[in-house]
Amino acid sequence: MPTDFNKTQILENLEVLSEWLRVKYPDDTFELLVVGGAAMALDELKGQTRDIDLLLPEILPAALKEGIAHVSRAKRLPPEWINTNAANILKKLKPTKGLPEYFNEISRTIGIGNNLKITLIGRQALIGMKLLASTPSYTKHTDDIRSLNPRKEEIEEAVRFVLSIDNVELRKEDLRIVLNAIGLDFDEFIGNSKR
Question: How far apart, in whole angstroms, are the C-alpha atoms of residue 42 and residue 8?
Answer without folding.
Answer: 8
